[in-house]
Amino acid sequence: MSYNMMEDVERILISEAELAQRVKELGAQITADYTGKEILMIGILRGAVLFMSDLMRAISLPVSLDFMAVSSYGVSTTSSGVVRIMKDLDENAENKHVLIVEDIIDSGLTLNYLVDNLKSRRPASVKICTLLSKPDRRKAEVQIAYNGFTIPDYFVVGYGLDFAEKYRNFPFIGVLKPSVYQSAKQSAKI
Ligand SMILES: O=P(O)(O)OC[C@H]1O[C@H](OP(=O)(O)OP(=O)(O)O)[C@H](O)[C@@H]1O
Ligand SMILES: Nc1nc2[nH]cnc2c(=O)[nH]1
Ligand SMILES: [Mg+2]
């Protein structure tokens, strides 16, 4: 069966080349800011995985990895506001320079909760690096140290971001066709 990646996508918002360029810039900035330090990158599953794997290769410092998973949107496209830890860190964050890596900050509810949670573990520092930020949607304040792209209030997919678990493997960030939403909404009612 052939797979046409563009079938469900209205348009490409950020191309593969633009993503690669911006990831390089972020990596260089992080390398400069953390010179002489080791970084504990904490990826928020699952959306951040693609961005994190590219970002770490753009950083020329010792980097270790850990992951957290929090309760998700499910098949809905809006946040419930309730954050639950589904998978906690495997390593101790105490005295570490923690860099939280996210694919997108939307309402800010996920990271607002996670930053407070991680700060309580006495790390040496905590900063956020997100690929995308949608400031128009913010409900909770989040301080972002590194932001790849500020985008308008579109529901985007690709490069880790899903809609009902699909489209994460697209190498670009795209805007979904409204018809895809509508048919998903209808089948959810049945
Ligand atoms: O700023 P917020 O409104 O809290 O939303 C952002 C969060 O929502 C998405 O994850 P999701 O819960 O959909 O899970 P996923 O990463 O597994 O796709 C995204 O990856 C962020 O983690
Ligand atoms: N895939 C996806 N997940 C999100 N979670 C919050 N905003 C978004 C978005 O625009 N796309
Ligand atoms: Mg996520």
Automatic annotation (TrEMBL):
Entry keyword set: Cytoplasm, Glycosyltransferase, Magnesium, Metal-binding, Nucleotide-binding, Purine salvage, Transferase
Principal subcellular localization: cytoplasm
Domain Phosphoribosyltransferase: 18-163
GO biological process: GMP salvage; guanine salvage; hypoxanthine metabolic process; IMP salvage; purine ribonucleoside salvage
Subcellular location, record wording: Cytoplasm
Annotated pathway: Purine metabolism; IMP biosynthesis via salvage pathway; IMP from hypoxanthine: step 1/1; Purine metabolism; GMP biosynthesis via salvage pathway; GMP from guanine: step 1/1
UniProt cross-references to NCBIfam families, sorted A to Z: HGPRTase
Family under the similarity heading: Belongs to the purine/pyrimidine phosphoribosyltransferase family.
Name of the protein described by the UniProt record: Hypoxanthine phosphoribosyltransferase
Organism this protein belongs to: Methylomusa anaerophila
Gene name for this UniProt entry: hpt
